[in-house]
């Protein structure tokens, strides 16, 4: 059975915790989310090999719950709705591939996709491999005061490529990584930010025009999107503020303004990100046989001399010296020597 890497598992304080079996996990779901049945798949669910958790962080305006389990199907059955006072929307963000069933709608969810669920209606979520979702829960009344939610929207997949969902995922990831370290007074502010981003995700799911999507986002959210774009296009030598501007349908001046407000420039951020990625690759034992020239090209720097100079500027060491310091290996034959300093 394939489990998520240890780094993806929750390690912070909050409601819930690890569970020894599906029965205990079912109780955690009830405490953290809503009443749900949990049916293990593939013979899992009991014994020492079972892995499951439900950890919740109360952010005032909403809750953020990190939920994971061995292969399972969770069901909000019709019988659970009788006399039930739960009245929530749940935006569930898939961390692993899964399936959402809402009425007659079946929505396969890829990693990074999201789906809006309604606690007052039946639904199912299942995963044949390890199940892992991050769930934002907020009162239906809060959403209704801001925007209408049609029945067609419930259970419909929101694609991982949605640019506003990317921003929401990045923010959720930061909160999940540092939840236990945040000051209690800061949590409601984080909850307000997530709430507004959630509304923007729902609005943007109806839009197809890039300019309309841009209008939903402030400079900070745009910065997160642009950083994500840069990370995904590092290997392209022509990556620049002009390329970012074209991708987002804005001016180069606007891109420079967004980065300047964060204390840097697009060009410097691109260089810094390239050199940080190169540093990770050079330190990776699995890439020990890969030449420095190939690593340079993988981060969009085709000139070896430029790469060596840039790497030394950011890390105060040449690429080959850094690799040796991390691996303890001497330079192998066929590996590119650092070019002499200009």
Order of helices and strands: EHEEEEEEEEEEHEHHHHHHHHHH
- The low-confidence runs, each spanning 5 or more residues with pLDDT under 50, are 1-14, 329-342
Q: Please tally the helical runs, counting DSSP H or I stretches of 4 or more residues.
A: 12
Q: Biggest sheet, strands in spatial order?
A: 1-3-4-11-6-9-12
Q: Please bin the fraction of helical residues.
A: 25-40%
Percent strand equals 15-25%
- Main sheet characteristics: 7 strands, antiparallel
What class do helices, strands and sheet pairing give? Answer: alpha+beta
Number of strands: 12
Can you describe what's shown?
- The structure is a single chain.
- The chain has 342 residues and is an alpha+beta fold.
- Helix content is 40%, strand content 19%.
- A 7-stranded antiparallel sheet has the order 1-3-4-11-6-9-12, sandwiched between helices. A 5-stranded antiparallel sheet has the order 2-5-10-7-8, with helices on one face.
- The radius of gyration is 23 Å and the shape is globular.
- The N terminus and C terminus are likely disordered.
Task: Describe the secondary-structure layout.
Layout: E1 15-18, H1 22-32, E2 37-40, E3 52-58, E4 63-69, E5 72-76, E6 88-94, E7 98-102, E8 105-109, E9 114-118, E10 123-127, E11 131-139, H2 140-146, E12 157-158, H3 163-178, H4 187-204, H5 210-216, H6 219-232, H7 241-248, H8 252-260, H9 266-283, H10 292-298, H11 304-315, H12 319-327
Helix pairs in contact: 3-4, 3-6, 7-8, 9-11
